[in-house]
Automatic annotation (TrEMBL):
Highest taxon of source: Bacteria
Coiled-coil ranges from the UniProt annotation: none
Gene3D superfamilies: STAS domain (3.30.750.24)
Lineage: Bacteria, Bacillati, Actinomycetota, Actinomycetes, Micrococcales
Residue ranges annotated for the STAS domain, each copy included: 1-113
Protein's name in the database: STAS domain-containing protein
Biological source species: Oerskovia merdavium
Amino acid sequence: MIEISTSPATTTLVIAGDLDLAERDQFPEIAARVVGLRRQLLVIDMCRVTFMDSTGAAFLISLADSGRKRGGATVLRGCDDRDLFVLEVCGALDLFRIDVDHRCDPPAGANAS
C-alpha cells in the first residue's frame, strides 16, 4: 500500500508491505501523481516496507530522478540496511538523501519492553 500526502513544499509517500514485482502495476499511476504535484521535496517513508526488490528500487529511482530533473530532492526515511543495499547495488544511492535521524513508530499493537 502506498499513501500520498502533500504540504505546500513536500510530497510524502508512506509505503507499507512489499515494494516489489508483484506491486509494479500501481507504480506508473503513483509516479504520475507524484510528478504532477510538482513539489520540490519528496519524502519516502519506508518504515513499514517488509521487502524491496530491484523492481521496487527502480520505482524509487525513477521518482528520485524525476525530482532531480526539476531541481528537487528525494529523502528516504525509515530505510533499513537491506533496502539501502539494494539501492547501492543499483548504483543509485547518491540520488537520495538519507534521513538518519528519523525513528519509526513501533508497529500497532507492539508491546513496549
